[in-house]
Amino acid sequence: MRGNIFEKILGQDSLFIDRKAFDHAFEPSRLPHRDHEVEALVRNLVDALNGHIPSNMLLYGVPGSGKTVVTRFVLTQLLEKGKEMGHPVNTYEINCRNVDTKYRVVQTLATQLHQRGDTPIPFTGWPTDRVLETLLHRMDRAGGVHILVLDEIDNLVAKAGSDLLYSLTNMNTLLTNARCCIIGISNDLHFTQELDPRVSSRLSQEDVVFHPYGAPEIQDILQERVRSGLRTDVLDGGVIELCAGLAAREHGDARRALDLLRISVQKAEQRSQTKVDPRHVRLAQSQLEHDQVTPILRTLPLHQKVVLFSIRLNEENGLRNISTGEIFRTYAEACMKIEVEPLTPRRISSLLNELDTLGLIMARNVSKGRGGRSKQVNSAIPKAIDAIAIMGENEPLIDEASQGKYMLQGKL
DNA sequence: TGTCCACTGGAAGGGAGGGCTT
DNA sequence: AAGCCCTCCCTTCCAGTGGACA
After folding, report:
1. Based on the structure, what is the number of domains in chain A?
2. Gap between the Cα atoms of A59 and A66, Å rounded
3. A122 touches strand C (CB under 7 A)
4. Does any domain span residue A27?
5. If you compute the radius of gyration of chain A from its CA atoms, what whole number of angstroms results?
6. What percent of chain A lies above the pLDDT cut of 90?
7. pTM score above 0.90
8. Which of A122, A174, A225, A374 is the 20 to 30 A CA-CA neighbour of A11?
């Protein structure tokens, strides 16, 4: 009899006690080094329990500085207390990276208040004002305090402008039986500059800045999770320090540190080793870099891929600081090879900005005097991913794969 | 000091696609 | 079926720009 292929791995003792302790969605019972921030939220939101309207708040900080986890932590306790005291509190969390238009934000909120017998609101089709009216009606029907958390709110403002925030911050004047408070979470300290002044003054009644964690603070966070998530004595000396140090270099991103540690442990497990040492952390670091990029690459639209392909191709030929014009010429040629109609230079300029925002390239505007003004572009993806790999499942398009590549290279 | 290059990026609008209302 | 509404992706047009160079 052949053994089941899962048996060998299943039989292994895991180094984890609770892997969830390293999840991004994990809600820890203690939040080291965030006491001031927790207190600021509590002081404001306690009004919800006193029958007043809490001030709108803006939380700022680099990614992985604890904004979201602190907010969830406080709101969970607020919900509990509200239930206990008989003050209904409703909370909503919207990530504006995924939900980034006025219509969709309002539709998402109203849908969460859907009750049996309500007309479902379609993904598109209704005038936005009608969806907003429905939302107000449903909020009034539910009563109590409604706390809207808009995560990555800067993204919403960039794409949809101030209009939605104007409507949302104006809701308290239209609600009769309910009150509403908005908590915006932003990575960008300066995003209110793009807002209509009326909106920004209403929205940022209370600002809380989350400072990036330093390496010692990240160490404390990791220690806390290690206690609940890992078996004792599986970490060699220096592992936590290394994870914390690497993450502190990435702008103090605690999430990054947790990922590093989790993957390091997995690496040790995969090798059937009982101790995690700094080599595993190095392995985890390079896997993380690779893993961060590949899903983004996979979901990139074709033309984005071809643009990135063109940049990478130039780099593989030894060019650095590639100009927009150079990229466009390579891009147009690549399009011809794969028999796709190229987009206009204006559009490519926008696509370059989008790739920059995604962190796949680094672009900066420079002027070369008479040589004109342009961008200088370098790719920001790991070296292991080459031009052909960027095309992913579109590879067959570039196929005659390398043929296309070498034909293009010949021209460079 | 003015010119000029190679763009940038805002504005306006077209059109396809998805959906609702009457 | 016709008339709307909304989003997304794209084009076209064009004023504006930083800085090397004549």
Report:
1. 3
2. 10
3. no
4. no
5. 25
6. 51
7. no
8. A225
Using C1' positions and the CA of A377, the closest nucleotide is: B7
- Nearest nucleotide to the CA of A352, by C1', is B8
A134 touches strand B (CB under 7 A): no
Q: Where is pLDDT greater, at A32 or A410? A: A32
pLDDT tens digits for range A159-191? 676 778 888 998 999 999 999 999 999 987 777
Model pLDDT for residues A87-145, shown as the tens digit of each residue: 889 999 998 877 878 888 899 999 889 888 888 888 777 888 888 989 999 999 999 99
Q: Is A369 within 7 A of strand C by CB distance?
A: yes
Measured CA to C1', what is the nucleotide nearest A344?
A: C11
Express the helix, strand and coil content of chain A in percent, nearest 5 each: 55, 15, 30
Which H helix or E strand runs over A210?
strand A206-210
Instruction: Output the pLDDT for position A358.
Output: 87
How do beta strands A361-367 and A57-61 pair? unpaired
What's the domain range around A315? 300-401
Beta strands across the sheet bearing A57-61: A89-95, A144-151, A178-186, A57-61, A206-210
- CATH number of the domain at A276, please: 1.10.8.60
Distance measured from the CA of protein residue A324 to the C1' of nucleotide C14, in angstroms? 19
What number of residues does chain A have? 412
